[in-house]
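Consider a concrete sample entry:
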Amino acid sequence: MRARVYVTLKPSVFDPQGRVVTDALTTLGYDDVRDVRQGKYFDLEVAGTDAEQVRARVTDMASRLLANPVIESYRVEVLA
């Protein structure tokens, strides 16, 4: 099964890359953009057929390695 883990900085953590992108978009005339937060995602191919078991396994991976729980949040999607 395929799963995707989205990792983003927690709202309380300053995001310098997001700030630069926000400023650049404003400079390009996109004045309606108020904030940009950058993130990353991981696509995983995981052996198994039970979506809930795969979700639990990938959630464990995310909490132990893929995301830094001190400064990042994550969300897991099982794609099929």
